[in-house]
């Protein structure tokens, strides 16, 4: 089992933070910051876990999640969703659409790491 | 609704004058028929008879011509177009 | 001499022929095959009911006794007909539009549908017509008697009576059969009219035949006959000017007012155009009927034995010369004259009696009102049939009572003078709006009373109804009240005397009382319709009369809609037509509009009936409509109170709903705004938290990384601060709490300041300016305005995607103020986004370049609004272009 993460996020500083946290623990981190091409990147990269921001330029994280869940080839792919809006209805929406976990920004670094580990069973 | 224009078409003008003549005719007739009363003393005579029936026939003829023209000019159908002024 | 039995047989055959004609005409009409039945010729011929047996036989007798005077009886009608444009045309139009059934109906309708007037007119008509019918019966029986076995030996009275009764009964049967087939006056009596037209031809042909026979057969040609006239005892018989004028007037009046004439002239009229033909054809008919009267009289006086009745010369002259065929034709002519008059008179009188006396009494007795429908028809028809029988019976009784006296001969003129009493009410009614019901009743009653006192009652002869003493010395010996010499005017001819006094009293009473009394609304409505009948059927003419009608409509509308709404409606309509006041022109559009408004209150059918009643052509009683209007007004008042309440409720509910919607909308906006703010705050917070945790853990980091991460934390803190500043700024601006510090500033200074503030950001952005154009001084808050400039310049810096980015600052002074344009050479803003760029958080591209929360332009817009100017996006400038406009009031030339 590889330790491969695809991070879909558009804030450069947040990308840097997550990349630092995960790579230090031995994860390979790919990043992608555009919403419209994110799904293609997922199918191309085939990561062990996707960390997905909701507010992305071009396309909403929810739409990307829907595509991932509709793709049988990506069955069982854990998706960790991050959002800065932090509203209850966003959380409900994410769970209904099949997000493996939902975390509000700002998050705790240990929590992110623990979640990634837990979701990948690593 | 627009009032009738001050200068109607020629037709309308003719129609109104025809109506005027139609109104005038009985007055002429009255004058003619009252003549015998003015000349009362002469009484019944052949010339008087001829005058009376001649005047009568003349009135009838003029009236016939007028009536025909009035009808043809459309003065009778007042459903369309301006109506000749009522009495 | 033709055998009496043969004559009776011919007479019966002729009657059968008339029945057949009437029957066929009815059937054709029923099958819709009008054709020649509705021709002007038939109409003209039917008018010949004016020429009764009194004309056919009596004219010759009249001429034999009084010379030329007989001709006045035909001159009057001639004048009326050639003057048809004055009166007849209007009368016929009114009759058609108002569905008039008789002269009583016309007069009662005109004066507010007054039944009292209907009764008065009917009674006068019956009294005036009954002797006339008796006269016809007498002439028929007399003409029969001429052919009776024994020749000169007069019939026994018994025979005369029985033949008169037979004739009366036969006429009753004919009239009932063909005169009461239909109820509505608008369904005309085709059978009767056609039969009368046939009779008209017969009598004209008969009289002309006799005349031609007399002139050429006996007299020896025209010249010889004229010579005979010159030498006859009639020659030089003087004309009495008073009688001549009076009789011309009387006959002119009679042609309008005789019930039977009104029947054929107005009620049976099919088409107004027929009147145009009749206007000359009927006078021609009258002239032909009188053409040979004098020759026949002159020849008769010369040829017939002294003492022979000149009234029967038409019959006895051919007989004396052995012309049996001609005599028979003459007999049929006389028969036709008598019967046609009786038939039409009976129809006219029966209509009046049943409509104005029997039906009102019946309705009052049954006390059910006119609410039933089917039964009334039957009752009316029965009433009419009984009335016809009654009228003929009256005529017969009069004939029997008067004993066939010589007095009957004068009855024609007496009858004329009687019905002439209708003239003032009739003419006044159609020509003068001021004529009132009270005036009409007064005039009619006075005129009728004077007529009866001075002419009718004395006509029965001394010792008849009035004693000799009364006639000679006046009532109670008061000389100036003598019936034939009122106020001592005994030099006058009795007929002229009666005419002058009766018409004088009539007109005086009519006019005086009309002027003194005030008409009720119904009378005024009817008056407007009658007098202005041509305007009503041809709108758009005669504005003053149209105004009167508009007033009537307003009157009506007020009763239904209430004064305020009705007046408002009329005022608006008038304003739409470009008029001032409350009375618009009566146009079809306006009528439709009014009808619709009324329909909202009383229903479409009633509204239509009401409007068309005032505008013309409807048979619904205005009184009924007025009642409906009053009741409706009461109902409306009640329901409008309810309506007002429910309207108030609805209004409150609507306000609540609106308020709720606004709140919901605000709440949605607030949620979206909070959500946006949350996102904008959480994003830098996330970085700050993540990197501070990394730094706190402190393991496995080089000093370069440590420095870098500290810098990120610092930057994100600044970003947070900026965001909070912007939010506060926007909030202050939006709430209008900002205090502006207006002072005179120079535009170039402001731009310089803005460029200086953004110099750190500018990088490769080239700035193009035109210092000459910039030289404008402004009265404004310089700090706020430069804040806007800074925002625009930094946006250009951030978003201009050209390889060699440029920003052009153009200043233009216009009439309304100063415009400062900021145009870059990038790709600009897509059209679909141009509308939203001034909204909060409307950042278009990704965050890295922006470095703000997307509040900049929103703040600019608020600032410019506070400064009294505006900021807009200028499309089509080749790049992103914004125009900042300041009003003239705050911009002054430097």
From TrEMBL, chain A:
Residues with the 4-aspartylphosphate modification: 53
Listed GO biological process terms: phosphorelay signal transduction system
Claim: tRNA processing is one of the keywords in the record: no
Pfam family, one: Response_reg
Listed Gene3D superfamilies: 3.40.50.2300
CDD domains reported in the protein's UniProt record: REC_OmpR
Alphabetical list of PANTHER family matching this protein: RESPONSE REGULATORY DOMAIN-CONTAINING PROTEIN, STRESS RESPONSE REGULATOR PROTEIN 1
Protein name: Response regulator receiver domain-containing protein
Species: Rhodovulum euryhalinum
Organism lineage: Bacteria, Pseudomonadati, Pseudomonadota, Alphaproteobacteria, Rhodobacterales
Automatic annotation (TrEMBL), chain B:
Superkingdom of source: Bacteria
Keywords: Membrane, Transmembrane, Transmembrane helix
Bilayer-spanning residue ranges: 50-67
Name assigned to this protein: Uncharacterized protein
Organism this protein belongs to: Rhodovulum euryhalinum
UniProtKB/TrEMBL annotation, chain C:
Catalysis: reaction(s): ATP + protein L-histidine = ADP + protein N-phospho-L-histidine
Main location per the UniProt record: membrane
Domain of life where this protein originates: Bacteria
EC number: 2.7.13.3
Start and end residues of each Histidine kinase domain: 676-890
Coiled coil stretches, renumbered: 628-676
Gene Ontology CC terms, in alphabetical order: membrane
Presence of keyword tRNA-binding: no
Membrane topology: Multi-pass membrane protein
InterPro entries (UniProt xref): HATPase_C_sf, HATPase_dom, His_kinase_dom, HisK_dim/P_dom, HisK_dim/P_sf, Na/Glc_symporter_sf, Na/solute_symporter, Sensor_HK_Regulatory
GO molecular function: phosphorelay sensor kinase activity; transmembrane transporter activity
Transmembrane segments: 6-25, 45-64, 70-88, 116-134, 164-180, 200-223, 244-262, 282-301, 383-401, 407-431, 438-456, 495-516
Family per record: Belongs to the sodium:solute symporter (SSF) (TC 2.A.21) family.
Name listed for the protein in its UniProt record: histidine kinase
């Amino acid at each position: 089992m590889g330790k491969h993460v695809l991070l879909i996020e558009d804030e450069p500083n947040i990308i840097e933070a997550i990349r630092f946290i995960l790579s230090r623990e031995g994860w390979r981190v790919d990043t992608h910051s555009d919403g419209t091409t994110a799904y293609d990147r997922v199918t191309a990269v085939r990561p062990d876990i996707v960390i997905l921001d909701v507010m992305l330029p071009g396309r909403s994280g929810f739409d990307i999640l829907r595509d991932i869940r509709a793709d049988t080839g990506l069955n069982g792919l854990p998706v960790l969703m991050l959002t800065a809006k932090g509203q209850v209805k966003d959380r409900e929406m994410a769970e209904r659409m099949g997000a493996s976990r939902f975390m509000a920004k700002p998050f705790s670094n240990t929590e992110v790491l623990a979640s990634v580990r837990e979701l990948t069973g690593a | 609704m627009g009032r009738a224009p001050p200068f109607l078409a020629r037709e309308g003008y003719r129609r109104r004058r025809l109506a005027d003549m139609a109104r005038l005719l009985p007055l002429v007739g009255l004058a003619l028929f009252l003549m015998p009363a003015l000349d009362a003393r002469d009484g019944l005579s052949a010339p008087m008879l001829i005058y009376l029936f001649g005047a009568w026939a003349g009135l009838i003829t003029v009236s016939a011509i007028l009536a025909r023209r009035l009808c043809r000019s459309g003065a009778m159908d007042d459903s369309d177009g301006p109506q000749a002024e009522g009495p | 001499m033709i055998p009496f039995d043969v004559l009776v047989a011919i007479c019966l055959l002729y009657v059968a022929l008339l029945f057949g004609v009437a029957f066929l005409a009815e059937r054709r009409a029923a099958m819709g095959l009008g054709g020649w039945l509705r021709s002007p010729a038939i109409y003209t011929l039917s008018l010949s009911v004016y020429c009764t047996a009194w004309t056919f036989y009596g004219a010759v007798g009249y001429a034999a006794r009084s010379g030329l005077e007989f001709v006045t009886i035909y001159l009057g009608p001639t004048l009326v007909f050639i003057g048809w444009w004055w009166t007849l045309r209007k009368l016929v139009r009114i009759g058609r539009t108002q569905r008039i059934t008789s002269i009583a109906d016309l007069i009662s309708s005109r004066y507010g549908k007054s039944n009292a007037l209907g009764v008065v007119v009917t009674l006068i008509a019956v009294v005036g017509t009954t002797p006339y019918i008796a006269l016809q019966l007498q002439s028929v029986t007399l003409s029969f008697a001429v052919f009776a076995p024994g020749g000169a030996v007069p019939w026994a009275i018994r025979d005369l009576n029985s033949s008169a009764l037979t004739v009366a009964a036969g006429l009753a049967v004919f009239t009932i059969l063909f005169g009461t087939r239909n109820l509505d006056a608008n369904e005309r009596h085709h059978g009767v009219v056609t039969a009368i037209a046939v009779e008209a031809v017969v009598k004209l042909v008969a009289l002309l035949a006799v005349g031609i026979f007399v002139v050429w057969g006996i007299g020896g040609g025209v010249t010889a006959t004229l010579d005979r006239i010159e030498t006859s005892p009639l020659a030089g018989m003087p004309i009495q000017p008073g009688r001549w004028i009076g009789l011309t007037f009387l006959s002119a009046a009679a042609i309008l007012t005789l019930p039977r004439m009104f029947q054929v002239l107005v009620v049976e009229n099919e088409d107004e155009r027929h009147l145009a033909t009749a206007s000359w054809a009927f006078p021609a008919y009258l002239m032909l009927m009188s053409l040979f009267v004098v020759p026949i009289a002159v020849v008769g006086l010369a040829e017939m034995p002294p003492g022979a009745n000149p009234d029967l010369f038409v019959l006895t002259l051919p007989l004396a010369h052995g012309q049996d065929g001609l005599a028979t034709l003459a007999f049929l002519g006389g028969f036709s004259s008598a019967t046609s008059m009786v038939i039409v008179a009976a129809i006219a009188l029966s209509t009046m009696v049943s409509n104005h006396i029997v039906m009102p009494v019946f309705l009052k007795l049954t006390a059910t009102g006119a609410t039933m429908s089917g039964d009334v028809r039957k009752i009316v028809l029965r009433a009419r049939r009984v009335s016809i029988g009654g009228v003929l019976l009256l005529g017969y009784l009069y004939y029997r009572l008067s004993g066939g006296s010589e007095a009957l001969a004068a009855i024609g003129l007496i009858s004329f003078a009687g019905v002439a009493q209708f003239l003032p009410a009739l003419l006044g009614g159609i020509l003068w709006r001021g004529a009132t019901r009270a005036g009409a009743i007064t005039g009619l009653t006075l005129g009728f009373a004077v007529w009866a006192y001075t002419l009718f009652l004395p006509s029965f002869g001394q010792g008849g109804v009035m004693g000799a003493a009364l006639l000679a010395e006046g009532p109670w010996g008061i000389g100036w009240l003598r019936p034939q010499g009122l106020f001592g005017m005994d030099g006058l001819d009795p007929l002229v005397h009666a005419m002058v006094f009766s018409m004088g009293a009539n007109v005086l009473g009519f006019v005086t009382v009309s002027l003194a009394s005030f008409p009720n609304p119904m009378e005024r409505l009817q008056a407007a319709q009658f007098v202005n009948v041509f305007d009503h059927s041809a709108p758009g003419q005669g504005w003053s009369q149209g105004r009167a009608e508009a007033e009537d409509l307003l009157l009506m509308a007020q009763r239904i809609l209430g004064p305020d709404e009705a007046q408002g409606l009329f005022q608006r309509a008038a304003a739409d037509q470009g008029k001032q006041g409350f009375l618009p022109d009566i146009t079809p559009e306006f009528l439709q509009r009014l009808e619709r408004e009324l329909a909202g209150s009383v229903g479409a059918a009633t509204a239509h009936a009401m409007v068309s009643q005032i505008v013309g052509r409807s048979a619904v009683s205005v009184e009924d409509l007025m009642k409906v209007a009053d009741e409706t007004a009461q109902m409306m008042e009640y329901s409008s109170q309810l309506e007002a309440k429910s309207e108030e409720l609805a209004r409150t509910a609507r306000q609540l709903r609106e308020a709720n919607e606004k709140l919901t909308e605000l709440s949605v906006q607030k949620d979206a705004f909070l959500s946006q703010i949350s996102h904008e705050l959480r994003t830098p917070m996330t970085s700050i938290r993540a990197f501070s945790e990394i730094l706190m853990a402190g393991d496995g980091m080089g000093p370069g990384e440590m420095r870098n991460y500290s810098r990120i934390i610092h930057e994100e803190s600044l970003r947070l601060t900026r965001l909070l500043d912007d939010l506060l700024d926007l909030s202050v601006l939006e709430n209008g709490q900002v205090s502006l510090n207006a002072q005179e500033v120079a535009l170039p200074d402001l731009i310089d300041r803005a460029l200086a503030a953004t110099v750190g950001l500018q990088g490769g952005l080239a700035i193009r300016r035109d210092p000459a154009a910039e030289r404008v001084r402004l009265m404004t808050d310089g700090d706020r305005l430069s804040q806007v400039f800074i925002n625009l310049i930094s946006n250009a810096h951030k978003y201009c995607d050209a390889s060699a980015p440029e920003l052009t600052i153009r200043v233009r002074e216009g009439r309304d103020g100063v415009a400062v344009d900021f145009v870059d050479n990038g790709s600009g803003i897509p059209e679909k986004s141009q509308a939203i760029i001034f909204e909060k958080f409307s950042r278009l591209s990704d965050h890295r370049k922006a470095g703000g929360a997307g509040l900049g332009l929103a703040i600019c817009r608020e600032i410019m609004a506070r400064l009294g100017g505006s900021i807009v996006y200028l499309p089509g400038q080749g790049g992103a272009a914004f125009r900042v406009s300041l009003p003239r009031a705050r911009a002054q030339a430097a």
